[in-house]
Protein backbone atom coordinates (compact mmCIF):
# COMPACT_ATOMS: atom_id res chain seq x y z
CA UNK A 1 0.00 0.00 0.00
CA UNK A 2 1.36 3.41 -0.95
CA UNK A 3 1.58 6.25 1.54
CA UNK A 4 0.06 9.66 0.68
CA UNK A 5 3.54 11.12 0.19
CA UNK A 6 4.46 8.36 -2.24
CA UNK A 7 1.24 8.88 -4.17
CA UNK A 8 2.01 12.60 -4.48
CA UNK A 9 5.50 11.82 -5.74
CA UNK A 10 4.11 9.38 -8.28
CA UNK A 11 1.61 11.91 -9.56
CA UNK A 12 4.28 14.60 -9.75
CA UNK A 13 6.49 12.54 -12.09
CA UNK A 14 4.01 13.14 -14.92
CA UNK A 15 2.47 16.24 -13.35
CA UNK A 16 5.52 18.53 -13.47
CA UNK A 17 5.95 18.45 -17.29
CA UNK A 18 2.21 18.93 -17.69
CA UNK A 19 2.29 21.97 -15.38
CA UNK A 20 5.18 23.40 -17.42
CA UNK A 21 3.13 23.01 -20.59
CA UNK A 22 0.12 24.75 -19.00
CA UNK A 23 2.34 27.59 -17.78
CA UNK A 24 3.78 28.12 -21.26
CA UNK A 25 0.29 27.94 -22.72
CA UNK A 26 -0.68 30.85 -20.46
CA UNK A 27 2.39 32.76 -21.72
CA UNK A 28 1.34 32.14 -25.31
CA UNK A 29 -2.26 33.15 -24.63
CA UNK A 30 -1.43 36.39 -22.84
CA UNK A 31 1.17 37.43 -25.39
CA UNK A 32 3.54 40.24 -24.54
CA UNK A 33 7.29 40.02 -24.15
CA UNK A 34 8.52 36.51 -23.39
CA UNK A 35 12.09 35.96 -22.22
CA UNK A 36 13.75 32.83 -23.63
CA UNK A 37 15.48 32.13 -20.34
CA UNK A 38 12.15 32.00 -18.50
CA UNK A 39 10.62 29.64 -21.06
CA UNK A 40 13.48 27.16 -21.09
CA UNK A 41 14.03 27.31 -17.32
CA UNK A 42 10.40 26.40 -16.64
CA UNK A 43 10.64 23.25 -18.79
CA UNK A 44 14.10 22.21 -17.59
CA UNK A 45 13.08 22.70 -13.96
CA UNK A 46 9.93 20.63 -14.50
CA UNK A 47 11.92 17.73 -15.94
CA UNK A 48 14.48 18.01 -13.14
CA UNK A 49 11.77 17.79 -10.49
CA UNK A 50 10.29 14.82 -12.35
CA UNK A 51 13.66 13.03 -12.22
CA UNK A 52 14.00 13.76 -8.51
CA UNK A 53 10.50 12.44 -7.77
CA UNK A 54 11.14 9.23 -9.68
CA UNK A 55 14.47 8.65 -7.94
CA UNK A 56 12.93 9.20 -4.50
CA UNK A 57 10.21 6.69 -5.38
CA UNK A 58 12.85 4.19 -6.47
CA UNK A 59 14.67 4.52 -3.16
CA UNK A 60 11.38 4.14 -1.25
CA UNK A 61 10.52 0.97 -3.14
CA UNK A 62 13.93 -0.61 -2.66
CA UNK A 63 14.13 0.29 1.02
CA UNK A 64 10.65 -1.05 1.70
CA UNK A 65 11.06 -4.17 -0.42
CA UNK A 66 7.87 -3.47 -2.34
CA UNK A 67 7.64 -4.51 -6.00
CA UNK A 68 5.16 -1.78 -6.97
CA UNK A 69 3.48 1.43 -5.81
CA UNK A 70 0.16 2.79 -7.03
CA UNK A 71 -1.59 6.14 -6.96
CA UNK A 72 -5.27 6.48 -7.84
CA UNK A 73 -6.98 9.75 -8.70
CA UNK A 74 -10.36 8.06 -8.90
CA UNK A 75 -12.50 7.15 -11.88
CA UNK A 76 -13.06 9.52 -14.76
CA UNK A 77 -16.37 7.93 -15.70
CA UNK A 78 -18.22 4.65 -15.32
CA UNK A 79 -21.03 3.16 -17.38
CA UNK A 80 -21.96 0.00 -15.53
CA UNK A 81 -19.66 -2.58 -17.06
CA UNK A 82 -17.00 -0.10 -18.25
CA UNK A 83 -14.93 2.29 -16.13
CA UNK A 84 -12.06 4.66 -16.91
CA UNK A 85 -9.65 4.47 -13.98
CA UNK A 86 -7.07 7.21 -13.39
CA UNK A 87 -4.42 4.93 -11.94
CA UNK A 88 -0.62 5.28 -11.97
CA UNK A 89 1.81 2.50 -11.11
CA UNK A 90 5.53 2.53 -10.29
CA UNK A 91 7.50 -0.70 -10.60
CA UNK A 92 10.75 -2.08 -11.95
CA UNK A 93 9.65 -1.38 -15.54
CA UNK A 94 8.00 2.03 -15.36
CA UNK A 95 10.44 3.87 -13.09
CA UNK A 96 13.62 3.34 -15.19
CA UNK A 97 11.77 4.46 -18.31
CA UNK A 98 10.26 7.44 -16.46
CA UNK A 99 13.68 8.53 -15.19
CA UNK A 100 15.17 8.15 -18.67
CA UNK A 101 12.40 10.23 -20.27
CA UNK A 102 12.64 13.07 -17.75
CA UNK A 103 16.45 13.09 -17.80
CA UNK A 104 16.70 13.23 -21.59
CA UNK A 105 13.90 15.80 -21.74
CA UNK A 106 15.80 18.07 -19.34
CA UNK A 107 19.07 17.65 -21.24
CA UNK A 108 17.37 18.49 -24.52
CA UNK A 109 15.84 21.55 -22.87
CA UNK A 110 19.29 22.76 -21.82
CA UNK A 111 20.82 22.00 -25.23
CA UNK A 112 18.03 23.85 -27.08
CA UNK A 113 18.62 27.09 -25.18
CA UNK A 114 21.48 27.94 -27.55
CA UNK A 115 20.52 25.79 -30.51
CA UNK A 116 17.14 27.53 -30.94
CA UNK A 117 18.22 30.96 -29.75
CA UNK A 118 16.25 33.71 -31.56
CA UNK A 119 14.18 31.06 -33.35
CA UNK A 120 10.62 32.35 -34.00
CA UNK A 121 9.15 29.06 -32.74
CA UNK A 122 11.15 29.01 -29.49
CA UNK A 123 8.10 29.01 -27.22
CA UNK A 124 6.26 26.51 -29.43
CA UNK A 125 9.18 24.08 -29.27
CA UNK A 126 9.33 24.11 -25.47
CA UNK A 127 5.55 23.77 -25.19
CA UNK A 128 5.63 20.67 -27.38
CA UNK A 129 8.65 19.30 -25.52
CA UNK A 130 6.86 19.62 -22.17
CA UNK A 131 3.65 18.09 -23.54
CA UNK A 132 5.60 15.23 -25.11
CA UNK A 133 7.32 14.55 -21.79
CA UNK A 134 3.99 14.50 -19.97
CA UNK A 135 2.53 12.11 -22.56
CA UNK A 136 5.45 9.68 -22.39
CA UNK A 137 5.46 9.75 -18.58
CA UNK A 138 1.76 8.94 -18.71
CA UNK A 139 2.44 5.95 -20.97
CA UNK A 140 5.22 4.76 -18.67
CA UNK A 141 3.28 5.10 -15.42
CA UNK A 142 -0.27 4.32 -16.57
CA UNK A 143 -1.94 1.58 -14.58
CA UNK A 144 -4.84 1.30 -17.04
CA UNK A 145 -4.65 0.81 -20.78
CA UNK A 146 -7.17 3.61 -21.31
CA UNK A 147 -4.76 6.01 -19.63
CA UNK A 148 -1.93 4.55 -21.70
CA UNK A 149 -3.92 5.43 -24.82
CA UNK A 150 -4.22 9.08 -23.70
CA UNK A 151 -0.47 9.42 -23.23
CA UNK A 152 0.12 7.49 -26.46
CA UNK A 153 -1.94 10.02 -28.42
CA UNK A 154 -0.23 13.02 -26.78
CA UNK A 155 3.19 11.64 -27.67
CA UNK A 156 2.14 10.97 -31.26
CA UNK A 157 0.57 14.39 -31.77
CA UNK A 158 3.55 16.31 -30.41
CA UNK A 159 5.97 14.17 -32.45
CA UNK A 160 4.13 14.98 -35.68
CA UNK A 161 3.95 18.68 -34.84
CA UNK A 162 7.68 18.83 -34.19
CA UNK A 163 8.47 17.08 -37.46
CA UNK A 164 6.53 19.92 -39.13
CA UNK A 165 8.17 22.52 -36.87
CA UNK A 166 9.56 24.51 -39.82
CA UNK A 167 6.13 24.85 -41.37
CA UNK A 168 7.18 27.58 -43.79
CA UNK A 169 8.71 24.81 -45.93
CA UNK A 170 6.61 22.19 -47.68
CA UNK A 171 8.65 19.06 -46.97
CA UNK A 172 8.52 19.17 -43.15
CA UNK A 173 4.75 19.57 -43.26
CA UNK A 174 4.36 16.62 -45.65
CA UNK A 175 6.62 14.43 -43.54
CA UNK A 176 4.86 15.42 -40.32
CA UNK A 177 1.54 14.53 -41.92
CA UNK A 178 2.91 11.16 -43.03
CA UNK A 179 4.09 10.36 -39.51
CA UNK A 180 0.74 11.44 -38.07
CA UNK A 181 -1.22 9.27 -40.51
CA UNK A 182 1.01 6.29 -39.73
CA UNK A 183 0.41 6.81 -36.03
CA UNK A 184 -3.35 7.08 -36.50
CA UNK A 185 -3.53 3.94 -38.62
CA UNK A 186 -1.63 1.93 -36.00
CA UNK A 187 -3.30 3.48 -32.95
CA UNK A 188 -6.42 1.58 -33.95
CA UNK A 189 -4.60 -1.51 -32.69
CA UNK A 190 -4.14 -0.11 -29.19
CA UNK A 191 -7.76 1.03 -29.05
CA UNK A 192 -8.95 -2.40 -30.19
CA UNK A 193 -6.73 -4.09 -27.60
CA UNK A 194 -8.20 -1.93 -24.82
CA UNK A 195 -11.77 -2.76 -25.82
CA UNK A 196 -11.13 -6.47 -26.36
CA UNK A 197 -9.14 -6.90 -23.14
CA UNK A 198 -11.97 -5.34 -21.17
CA UNK A 199 -14.45 -7.56 -22.98
CA UNK A 200 -12.41 -10.72 -22.33
CA UNK A 201 -11.34 -10.12 -18.73
CA UNK A 202 -13.72 -7.43 -17.46
CA UNK A 203 -10.83 -5.11 -16.59
CA UNK A 204 -8.02 -3.24 -18.33
CA UNK A 205 -6.17 -2.12 -15.19
CA UNK A 206 -2.96 -3.64 -13.84
CA UNK A 207 -3.00 -6.37 -11.25
CA UNK A 208 -0.35 -7.27 -8.69
CA UNK A 209 3.24 -7.78 -9.78
CA UNK A 210 3.59 -10.92 -11.88
CA UNK A 211 5.66 -13.73 -10.47
CA UNK A 212 9.27 -13.78 -11.62
CA UNK A 213 9.24 -10.30 -13.19
CA UNK A 214 8.58 -7.81 -10.42
CA UNK A 215 6.47 -5.87 -12.92
CA UNK A 216 2.79 -5.13 -12.77
CA UNK A 217 0.79 -6.96 -15.41
CA UNK A 218 -2.73 -7.22 -16.75
CA UNK A 219 -5.29 -9.95 -16.34
CA UNK A 220 -4.73 -12.88 -18.68
CA UNK A 221 -7.62 -13.62 -21.06
CA UNK A 222 -9.12 -17.06 -20.34
CA UNK A 223 -9.36 -18.00 -24.03
CA UNK A 224 -6.27 -18.43 -26.20
CA UNK A 225 -8.12 -16.84 -29.14
CA UNK A 226 -8.66 -13.64 -27.15
CA UNK A 227 -4.99 -13.49 -26.15
CA UNK A 228 -3.98 -13.97 -29.80
CA UNK A 229 -6.18 -11.13 -31.05
CA UNK A 230 -5.12 -8.75 -28.28
CA UNK A 231 -1.44 -9.57 -28.78
CA UNK A 232 -1.58 -8.98 -32.53
CA UNK A 233 -3.44 -5.70 -32.00
CA UNK A 234 -0.77 -4.54 -29.54
CA UNK A 235 1.96 -5.55 -31.99
CA UNK A 236 0.28 -3.51 -34.73
CA UNK A 237 0.12 -0.48 -32.43
CA UNK A 238 3.79 -0.91 -31.54
CA UNK A 239 4.90 -1.15 -35.17
CA UNK A 240 3.75 2.39 -35.92
CA UNK A 241 5.54 4.07 -33.04
CA UNK A 242 8.65 1.87 -33.33
CA UNK A 243 8.94 2.39 -37.14
CA UNK A 244 8.97 -1.31 -38.00
CA UNK A 245 8.63 -2.69 -41.53
CA UNK A 246 6.74 -1.97 -43.64
CA UNK A 247 5.70 1.21 -41.79
CA UNK A 248 9.11 2.66 -40.94
CA UNK A 249 9.42 5.06 -43.86
CA UNK A 250 8.36 7.99 -41.69
CA UNK A 251 11.38 7.73 -39.37
CA UNK A 252 14.18 9.06 -41.67
CA UNK A 253 11.77 11.74 -42.89
CA UNK A 254 11.16 12.78 -39.28
CA UNK A 255 14.67 14.22 -39.23
CA UNK A 256 13.24 17.31 -40.96
CA UNK A 257 12.46 18.58 -37.47
CA UNK A 258 14.95 20.38 -35.22
CA UNK A 259 17.97 18.32 -34.20
CA UNK A 260 17.04 18.39 -30.47
CA UNK A 261 13.61 16.93 -31.17
CA UNK A 262 15.14 14.30 -33.46
CA UNK A 263 17.47 13.26 -30.64
CA UNK A 264 14.88 12.80 -27.92
CA UNK A 265 11.88 11.75 -30.00
CA UNK A 266 12.73 9.68 -33.06
CA UNK A 267 16.18 8.54 -32.01
CA UNK A 268 15.44 7.66 -28.39
CA UNK A 269 12.12 7.93 -26.59
CA UNK A 270 9.35 7.92 -29.18
CA UNK A 271 10.57 4.80 -31.01
CA UNK A 272 11.01 3.07 -27.64
CA UNK A 273 7.32 3.34 -26.81
CA UNK A 274 6.48 0.38 -29.05
CA UNK A 275 8.72 -2.14 -27.26
CA UNK A 276 7.72 -0.62 -23.91
CA UNK A 277 4.04 -1.27 -24.63
CA UNK A 278 4.81 -4.91 -25.41
CA UNK A 279 6.85 -5.26 -22.22
CA UNK A 280 4.07 -3.76 -20.13
CA UNK A 281 1.41 -6.05 -21.63
CA UNK A 282 3.61 -9.16 -21.73
CA UNK A 283 1.35 -11.03 -19.29
CA UNK A 284 -1.51 -10.83 -21.80
CA UNK A 285 0.19 -12.42 -24.82
CA UNK A 286 3.18 -14.30 -23.33
CA UNK A 287 1.30 -17.61 -23.36
CA UNK A 288 0.53 -17.38 -27.10
CA UNK A 289 3.38 -18.73 -29.26
CA UNK A 290 1.93 -17.19 -32.44
CA UNK A 291 2.26 -13.67 -31.00
CA UNK A 292 5.83 -14.33 -29.91
CA UNK A 293 6.72 -15.60 -33.39
CA UNK A 294 5.10 -12.54 -34.99
CA UNK A 295 7.05 -10.15 -32.73
CA UNK A 296 10.33 -11.93 -33.47
CA UNK A 297 9.63 -11.96 -37.21
CA UNK A 298 8.78 -8.25 -37.36
CA UNK A 299 11.83 -7.29 -35.31
CA UNK A 300 14.23 -9.49 -37.28
CA UNK A 301 12.97 -8.31 -40.67
CA UNK A 302 13.24 -4.70 -39.55
CA UNK A 303 16.78 -5.17 -38.26
CA UNK A 304 17.96 -6.73 -41.54
CA UNK A 305 16.10 -4.19 -43.69
CA UNK A 306 17.34 -1.15 -41.74
CA UNK A 307 20.93 -2.45 -41.71
CA UNK A 308 20.98 -2.79 -45.50
CA UNK A 309 19.26 0.53 -46.20
CA UNK A 310 21.27 2.44 -43.62
CA UNK A 311 24.54 1.50 -45.36
CA UNK A 312 23.46 3.40 -48.50
CA UNK A 313 22.49 6.66 -46.76
CA UNK A 314 24.58 9.72 -47.59
CA UNK A 315 23.59 12.00 -44.68
CA UNK A 316 24.29 11.31 -41.05
CA UNK A 317 20.78 11.88 -39.67
CA UNK A 318 19.21 9.38 -42.08
CA UNK A 319 21.93 6.86 -41.26
CA UNK A 320 21.26 7.33 -37.53
CA UNK A 321 17.52 6.96 -38.14
CA UNK A 322 18.04 3.57 -39.75
CA UNK A 323 20.49 2.64 -37.00
CA UNK A 324 17.74 3.36 -34.47
CA UNK A 325 15.33 1.25 -36.50
CA UNK A 326 17.83 -1.61 -36.45
CA UNK A 327 18.31 -1.50 -32.69
CA UNK A 328 14.59 -1.27 -31.95
CA UNK A 329 14.04 -4.29 -34.20
CA UNK A 330 16.60 -6.22 -32.14
CA UNK A 331 14.81 -5.14 -28.97
CA UNK A 332 11.57 -6.58 -30.36
CA UNK A 333 13.38 -9.87 -30.97
CA UNK A 334 14.49 -9.85 -27.34
CA UNK A 335 10.95 -9.12 -26.20
CA UNK A 336 9.57 -11.98 -28.28
CA UNK A 337 12.18 -14.36 -26.86
CA UNK A 338 11.19 -13.41 -23.31
CA UNK A 339 14.48 -11.62 -22.48
CA UNK A 340 12.63 -8.82 -20.71
CA UNK A 341 15.50 -7.47 -18.59
CA UNK A 342 17.88 -7.47 -21.52
CA UNK A 343 15.27 -5.66 -23.62
CA UNK A 344 14.80 -2.98 -20.95
CA UNK A 345 18.55 -2.45 -20.55
CA UNK A 346 18.92 -2.34 -24.35
CA UNK A 347 16.19 0.32 -24.61
CA UNK A 348 17.79 2.54 -21.98
CA UNK A 349 21.32 2.21 -23.37
CA UNK A 350 20.20 2.78 -26.95
CA UNK A 351 18.19 5.88 -26.03
CA UNK A 352 21.12 7.47 -24.23
CA UNK A 353 23.67 6.67 -26.96
CA UNK A 354 21.46 7.62 -29.88
CA UNK A 355 20.48 10.94 -28.33
CA UNK A 356 24.14 11.87 -27.91
CA UNK A 357 24.93 10.83 -31.49
CA UNK A 358 22.12 12.87 -33.02
CA UNK A 359 22.98 15.92 -30.93
CA UNK A 360 26.57 15.68 -32.21
CA UNK A 361 25.51 15.02 -35.81
CA UNK A 362 25.88 18.68 -36.97
CA UNK A 363 29.53 18.50 -35.87
CA UNK A 364 30.24 15.12 -37.48
CA UNK A 365 32.72 16.36 -40.09
CA UNK A 366 34.55 18.45 -37.49
CA UNK A 367 34.78 15.44 -35.14
CA UNK A 368 35.91 13.21 -38.00
CA UNK A 369 38.78 15.53 -38.85
CA UNK A 370 39.88 15.68 -35.22
CA UNK A 371 39.84 11.88 -35.02
CA UNK A 372 41.93 11.56 -38.19
CA UNK A 373 44.45 14.05 -36.80
CA UNK A 374 44.67 12.05 -33.57
CA UNK A 375 45.16 8.75 -35.45
CA UNK A 376 47.56 10.29 -37.97
CA UNK A 377 45.96 8.73 -41.07
CA UNK A 378 42.59 8.52 -42.83
CA UNK A 379 40.08 6.33 -41.06
CA UNK A 380 39.36 3.01 -42.84
CA UNK A 381 35.82 2.43 -44.14
CA UNK A 382 33.54 0.25 -42.05
CA UNK A 383 31.39 -2.71 -43.06
CA UNK A 384 33.99 -4.47 -45.23
CA UNK A 385 33.15 -7.78 -43.56
CA UNK A 386 29.80 -7.80 -45.38
CA UNK A 387 31.50 -7.24 -48.73
CA UNK A 388 33.66 -10.31 -48.21
CA UNK A 389 30.79 -12.70 -47.49
CA UNK A 390 28.26 -11.44 -50.08
CA UNK A 391 28.80 -12.36 -53.78
CA UNK A 392 29.31 -9.42 -56.19
CA UNK A 393 26.06 -10.05 -58.07
CA UNK A 394 24.08 -10.07 -54.85
CA UNK A 395 25.85 -6.91 -53.72
CA UNK A 396 24.49 -5.02 -56.72
CA UNK A 397 20.95 -6.22 -56.01
CA UNK A 398 21.24 -5.32 -52.32
CA UNK A 399 22.58 -1.88 -53.22
CA UNK A 400 19.55 -1.21 -55.40
CA UNK A 401 17.33 -2.57 -52.64
CA UNK A 402 18.94 -0.10 -50.25
CA UNK A 403 18.58 2.85 -52.63
CA UNK A 404 14.87 2.04 -53.08
CA UNK A 405 14.49 1.64 -49.29
CA UNK A 406 13.21 -1.87 -49.70
CA UNK A 407 10.49 -0.78 -52.16
CA UNK A 408 8.18 -0.36 -49.16
CA UNK A 409 7.54 3.33 -49.87
CA UNK A 410 6.54 2.61 -53.47
CA UNK A 411 4.33 -0.30 -52.40
CA UNK A 412 2.54 1.77 -49.79
CA UNK A 413 2.15 4.70 -52.17
CA UNK A 414 0.89 2.75 -55.18
CA UNK A 415 -1.12 -0.06 -53.63
CA UNK A 416 -2.26 1.07 -50.19
CA UNK A 417 -2.51 4.85 -50.32
CA UNK A 418 -3.19 4.83 -54.06
CA UNK A 419 -5.93 2.24 -53.66
CA UNK A 420 -7.59 4.22 -50.89
CA UNK A 421 -7.32 7.41 -52.94
CA UNK A 422 -8.93 5.76 -55.95
CA UNK A 423 -11.69 4.38 -53.76
CA UNK A 424 -12.41 7.80 -52.27
CA UNK A 425 -12.43 9.44 -55.70
CA UNK A 426 -14.79 6.78 -57.02
CA UNK A 427 -17.13 7.32 -54.09
CA UNK A 428 -16.97 11.08 -54.63
CA UNK A 429 -17.77 10.65 -58.33
CA UNK A 430 -20.78 8.46 -57.54
CA UNK A 431 -21.95 10.99 -54.97
CA UNK A 432 -21.70 13.84 -57.51
CA UNK A 433 -23.54 11.80 -60.13
CA UNK A 434 -26.34 10.97 -57.68
CA UNK A 435 -26.59 14.61 -56.56
CA UNK A 436 -26.87 15.79 -60.20
CA UNK A 437 -29.59 13.21 -60.88
CA UNK A 438 -31.59 14.34 -57.87
CA UNK A 439 -31.17 18.04 -58.67
CA UNK A 440 -32.21 17.45 -62.28
CA UNK A 441 -35.62 16.19 -61.17
CA UNK A 442 -36.29 18.84 -58.54
CA UNK A 443 -38.48 21.91 -59.09
CA UNK A 444 -39.08 24.53 -56.36
CA UNK A 445 -42.54 24.72 -54.82
CA UNK A 446 -45.07 27.12 -56.51
CA UNK A 447 -45.13 30.69 -55.25
CA UNK A 448 -48.88 30.52 -54.56
CA UNK A 449 -48.23 28.22 -51.60
CA UNK A 450 -49.64 25.02 -53.12
CA UNK A 451 -47.38 22.09 -52.44
CA UNK A 452 -48.08 19.91 -55.46
CA UNK A 453 -46.89 16.38 -55.88
CA UNK A 454 -43.14 15.74 -56.15
CA UNK A 455 -43.63 13.39 -59.07
CA UNK A 456 -45.77 15.92 -60.96
CA UNK A 457 -43.15 18.63 -60.41
CA UNK A 458 -40.41 16.31 -61.70
CA UNK A 459 -42.44 15.57 -64.85
CA UNK A 460 -43.04 19.28 -65.31
CA UNK A 461 -39.35 19.95 -65.02
CA UNK A 462 -38.58 17.30 -67.61
CA UNK A 463 -41.16 18.73 -69.98
CA UNK A 464 -39.73 22.21 -69.53
CA UNK A 465 -36.30 20.92 -70.63
CA UNK A 466 -37.68 19.43 -73.83
CA UNK A 467 -39.34 16.27 -72.62
CA UNK A 468 -42.63 17.31 -74.42
CA UNK A 469 -41.79 19.05 -77.69
CA UNK A 470 -45.41 19.64 -78.59
CA UNK A 471 -46.06 21.49 -75.39
CA UNK A 472 -43.05 23.73 -76.04
CA UNK A 473 -44.34 24.64 -79.55
CA UNK A 474 -47.79 25.35 -78.17
CA UNK A 475 -46.28 27.62 -75.58
CA UNK A 476 -44.85 29.88 -78.25
Q: How is this structure best described in words?
A:
With 476 residues, the protein is mainly alpha-helical. It folds into two domains: 4-364, no CATH class; 408-441. The protein is built from 20 helices and four strands. It has a two-stranded antiparallel sheet with strand order 1-2. A two-stranded antiparallel sheet has the order 3-4. α1 runs antiparallel to α4 (122-141) and α12 (289-310) runs antiparallel to α13. It is globular, with a radius of gyration of 28 Å. Mean pLDDT is 82; it is low at 451-476.
Structural class estimated from helices and strands: mainly alpha
Largest sheet: 2 strands, antiparallel
Please work out how many helical segments DSSP would assign. Answer: 20
* Strand arrangement across the biggest beta sheet: 1-2
| Spatial extent as radius of gyration | 28 Å
Q: How helical, in percent, are the residues?
A: over 70%
Count of domains: 2
- What is the succession of H and E elements? HHEEHHHHEEHHHHHHHHHHHHHH
Could you tell me the mean pLDDT? 82
Uncertain spans, ≥5 residues at pLDDT below 50? 451-476
Amino acid sequence: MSTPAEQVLLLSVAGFPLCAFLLLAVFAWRGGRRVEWTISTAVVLAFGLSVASALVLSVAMMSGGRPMLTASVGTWFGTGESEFHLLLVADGLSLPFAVLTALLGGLIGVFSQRYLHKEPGYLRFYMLLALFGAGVELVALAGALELTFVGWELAGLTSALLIAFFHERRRPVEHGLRAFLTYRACDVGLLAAVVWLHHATGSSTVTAAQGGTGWAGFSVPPAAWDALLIGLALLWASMGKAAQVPLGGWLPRAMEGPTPSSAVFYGAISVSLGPYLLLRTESVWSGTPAVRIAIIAVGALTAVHATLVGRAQTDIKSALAYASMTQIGMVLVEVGLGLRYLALAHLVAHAALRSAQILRSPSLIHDHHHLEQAVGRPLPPTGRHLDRVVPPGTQAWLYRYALERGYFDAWLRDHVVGGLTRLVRRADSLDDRWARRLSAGWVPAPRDGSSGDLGERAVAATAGRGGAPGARRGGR
